[in-house]
Amino acid sequence: MQARSALFDLYGDYLRSRGGRAPVSALVKLLAPLGIAPPAVRTAVSRMVRQGWLHPLRLLSGPGYLLTPKAARRLDEASARVYRTGRTGWDGRFDLVLLRAPLARRDATRLAFLGYGRLAEDAWVAPRPSDEIDAVLAEIGIRYERFSATHAAGSPGAADLVARAWDLDRIGSAYAGFVAEQRPLVTAVTTRSTDEEAYAARFTLVHAWRSFLFRDPHLPASLLPPRWPGASAAGFFDRHATRLRPAADRYVDGCLATPAPRRS
Predict the structure, then answer these.
(1) 205 contacts 186 by C-beta, under 8 angstroms
(2) DSSP letters for 108-155
(3) C-beta of residue 31 within 8 angstroms of C-beta of residue 10
(4) All domains of the chain, ordered by start, with CATH?
(5) What is the DSSP letter of 219?
(6) C or N terminus of the chain, fewer CB within 10 Å?
């Protein structure tokens, strides 16, 4: 687990609801159970400041960092997809983006995160438009056109388009692998486990689940094959993320608690 991605998870899953800020000392302590060393945390924080995700500020407990508005918007959108609280309906329309030039690999990853699949080097499609797509393409600096598209009568249809844009067999296998890998980790946490153990297990669970933001465009059920593995994987994630949450929250609150000032 890389320090930068772990920090995004930490801010998105725990700190966003606690004011979006934390002292450096707490960030170091909260990532220690994941095996991330203090120098790696500080290096990742500095990088996130340069990239406009965090803003330095002075807290009562010392120097700290606050989410920028850009980061808060991105984390809120990701959280809605992680916990499947976003839009689930579909009006039969796709958001089609035609580019004037191919994307670099890094930029293609950004579009995949927003739920877009590649039909061709210069054509990307999503089952619903992302609120960020125009800003992201403008930041990349590439010319493009966007259309709201539906299938004409007699065309192969939505299922054919989905099969071209996304490898559903591969995504389904990844969901099955997620459950097989995470089950022994989360079921090992019982009522006799410490809050830190529950926090570490839940953090690992959520971190692994977030990877599907780059793989699964959250297609409507009508476009998915029967007995879609993503549905059972989502149920598994929801059960254990909810079960481990109280203990994980206690651990986070303990790490964020400001020590009482020493009396002279």
Answers:
(1) yes
(2) HHHHHHTT-EEEETTEEEESS--TTHHHHHHHHT--EEEEEE-PPTTS
(3) yes
(4) 3-72 (1.10.10.10), 93-149 (3.30.70), 168-256 (no CATH)
(5) -
(6) C
* Residue (of 120, 130, 146) closest to 86 by Cα position: 130
Q: Which residues touch 28 (CB under 8 Å, ≥6 apart)?
A: 38, 41, 42
pLDDT tens profile 178-228: 999 999 999 999 999 999 999 999 999 999 999 998 888 888 888 888 889
- Residue written as token pair 């007995």: 227
Can you say how many angstroms the Cα of residue 221 is from the centroid of all Cα atoms in its chain? 21
56 DSSP assignment: E
Torsion of CA 107, 71, 94, 177, to 10 degrees: 80
Residue type, 130: S
CA distance 55 to 69: 10
In the numeric block, which tokens belong to residue 150? 């539906």
For the chain, first and last CA: distance in Å? 43
- Of 180, 172, 170, residue with least CA distance to 226: 172
107 has which bridge partners?
Answer: none
Q: For CA atoms 163, 166, 170, 172, give the dihedral sign.
A: negative
Q: Which two tokens stand for residue 116?
A: 């877009």
Q: How far apart are CA 136 and CA 56, in angstroms?
A: 24
SS3 218: coil
Residues 6 or more apart in contact with residue 135 via CB below 8 angstroms: none
190: its two tokens: 């019982």
